[in-house]
Structure formats: structure tokens, C-alpha cells
Amino acid sequence: MMRSMKTAATGMEAQQLYMDTISNNLSNVNTTGFKRSKVEFQDLMYQTMREPGVRNFEGAMAPSGIEVGLGVKPAGTQRIFEQGSLNRTENPLDIAVKGEGMFQIMLPDGSTAYTRDGSFKLSSDGTLVTSSGFMLQPQIAIPEGSQELTVAADGRVTVMMPGDETSIDIGQIELVRFVNPSGLKSLGGNLYSMTDASGLPMVSYPGEEGAGVIEQGYTEASNVQIVEEMVGMITAQRAFEIVSKSIQTAEEMLQIANNLKR
């Protein structure tokens, strides 16, 4: 009887984690470049009371065994890197990626992080930085007094200076891909870091090696599908409810057994 309660408790904890993940997805529905997560579960080990195929005293083989499962456990949370829709902003510093590539960002400790958030700003010295002030890599410095900033599909950045008739090339944006982007570690702030599971970063220019191309004046919306998350929320709620019912039923059976003595 107590086994059923503990087994049901693992189910309630699993549905709670599922609900936590859905809540995080819905909370970030308007976060630029956010990628939704999906929880994966596995059943726990089984208590085997009789092995399948054993023979009884008469020599007959049992066609099936007796196994009782002990519940469920979370196997992992997978980040889904599907393309989000592009929102037009008409801001020349907003840059979206159509494809798999990610921007490289230098953190204050000198390490490199990666992001799909291309809503860049200008720092006080004219370099492109994230909303948190972290510098885009390789560094792109906008000359003071420049009038037109253009980012081509291949990432080449040009500006027009006053009095000039031709634009000046000031750099080219690079993109990074990973063999297993789901293995990236979330740092918060729309940033990810490399792990052994993600593999090493593969650096290329936009338009090359499947990295995707640049769209200036756009930001990438999150890939959260509200209807899908709402269906998941209902599923989690109903699963949590029915698992809690099994605990209640087990408790009632214990009570019946306890009352047999009276």
C-alpha cells in the first residue's frame, strides 16, 4: 500500500516539473529569440516478483512475469531550436538570423556566450552590444558621425559618412552553429554557453555552411506556441489530479484495512 503512495508521489513531482517548464515557456512568449523547452520522462526501475519464462512445479513455463513499476523520473529538458517568426522593427541595429546560426557575445570574464537575440544597441564608444551591454564578437565599431548603417544578408556591415558617395566597410558579423544545440547551457539573459554535450562551436559567415542569413531591421520572436502550451498545461493538471486520486484511494484502502480489527 505504501508503495503505491510513493509511486504516485513521483508522478506528482514529475507533473509539477512539467508545469514549471510550461510556465517558463509561457512567461517568455514575448522574449526575443527565446527557445522553448520540452520535458522528457522515463519510468523508474521495476520490482520483479516473478521473472518472465520461469517454470512452475509442473514444469509449465509462465508466459509472463510479475513486475511492479515504481514511478517516473525526469530524463531531461530539451531546448527546441526551431526558427521563430521575424518581427519588423525598422531599427537598423536590430538583426535577426534566418537559419541555425547564433551570435557570439563576449562576457565580462572574457568567455564567449551565444544568443539568438539580435536587438543590439550602441555603447558609449560606438560598438555593438547586447541590451545587457555585452559586446558582439567580432567587434563592430560604428564611426562617429556616420549616417547610414547597413547590414547585408552575408553579415557585412557598411556605413555612409557625411560627404561621401560610397559606403565604408567596417566589418562582418560571424555566426556559430553547434552539432547539438540542445546541449547548450542556459545562462539567462538570452545567453547560452557551450558544454561537452553541445560540441565545439563552428564559426562561419552568414550564408555559408547552413549558418543562415541576416535580416536587418527585424528581431526574432520566441518559438513558443501558446495553444500547444495551454494543451500541455491541461494535460499536466489532469495527470496531477488523477495521480493524487491514486494516493487518496491508497489511503482509503489503508483505512479499510485498519478498521478490520474493530
Structure description:
It is a single chain. With 262 residues, the protein is of the alpha+beta class. The chain has helices at 2-27, 226-259; strands spanning 37-43, 46-50, 66-69, 72-79, 86-88, 95-98, 103-106, 112-115, 121-122, 128-129, 135-137, 148-151, 156-160, 168-172, 175-177, 185-188, 191-193, 202-204, 213-216, 218-220. The strands form 9 sheets. The chain has a 3-stranded antiparallel sheet with strand order 8-7-11, with no helix packed on it. A 3-stranded antiparallel sheet has the order 12-13-14, with no helix packed on it. The longest helix is centred in the C-terminal third of the chain and has 34 residues, at 226-259. The protein is elongated.
Question: In terms of topology, how is this protein built?
Answer:
Blueprint: H1 2-27, E1 37-43, E2 46-50, E3 66-69, E4 72-79, E5 86-88, E6 95-98, E7 103-106, E8 112-115, E9 121-122, E10 128-129, E11 135-137, E12 148-151, E13 156-160, E14 168-172, E15 175-177, E16 185-188, E17 191-193, E18 202-204, E19 213-216, E20 218-220, H2 226-259
Antiparallel strand pairs: 1-4, 2-3, 5-20, 6-19, 7-8, 7-11, 9-10, 12-13, 13-14, 15-18, 16-17
Helix pairs in contact: 1-2
Unreliable residue stretches: none
Question: What spatial form do the alpha-carbon principal axes imply?
Answer: elongated
What class would the helix/strand composition place it in?
Answer: alpha+beta
Count of runs of 4 or more consecutive helical residues: 2
- Helical residue percent band: 10-25%
Rounded to an integer in angstroms, the radius of gyration calculated over CA atoms is 27 Å
Question: What would the average pLDDT be, to the nearest integer?
Answer: 92
Total beta strand runs = 20
**What is the H-and-E element order?**
HEEEEEEEEEEEEEEEEEEEEH
How widely separated are the two ends? 20 Å
Strand content: 25-35%
Describe the biggest sheet?
3 strands, antiparallel
